[in-house]
Specification:
Elements: E1 2-9, H1 15-29, E2 35-43, E3 46-56, H2 59-67, H3 69-77, E4 87-91
Antiparallel strand pairs: 1-3, 1-4, 2-3
Length: about 100
C-alpha cells in the first residue's frame, strides 16, 4: 500500500479558487480503481494551506494516478493560485485501528 500526504499553500487571496481546483482533483481521483483514500483538508489555523491524505492500493495505482489527465492538469490549473512548492511525504504504516 502507498500512503502519503501532500500539502499545497494558496497564494494570497487565491484560497477559494485553489480549493475549487483541488476539489476537481478529488472528483477525478474518485474514478481511479486503485485509489483507496483521497481526502482533501484545510489546515486549521492556516486557511490558505491544504493537505491531502492519500492511499493507493500499490505502486502501480499511484503511478497511474500521476499519469492521469486530471492530475497532470493540476499544474496548469493552479498557475498563479499557489505559493511555494507543494510538499509530499511518503508514510510507512506502523499500526492502526479500523476506520469506523
Amino acid at each position: 500500500m502507498i500512503i502519503l500526504t501532500a500539502s499545497i499553500t494558496a497564494a494570497e487571496g487565491k484560497d477559494k479558487e485553489l480549493e475549487e481546483v483541488l476539489r476537481g482533483l478529488v472528483k477525478g481521483t474518485a474514478t481511479e480503481e486503485g485509489a483507496l483514500e483521497y481526502r482533501l483538508h484545510r489546515v486549521k489555523g492556516n486557511p490558505v494551506k491544504f493537505r491531502f491524505i492519500e492511499k493507493f492500493k500499490d505502486q502501480a495505482a499511484f503511478d497511474f494516478h500521476l499519469s492521469t489527465d486530471h492530475f497532470k492538469a493540476l499544474g496548469e490549473k493552479s498557475v498563479g493560485l499557489t505559493q511555494g512548492e507543494a510538499e509530499m511525504e511518503m508514510l510507512e504504516l506502523i499500526d492502526s485501528i479500523p476506520e469506523k
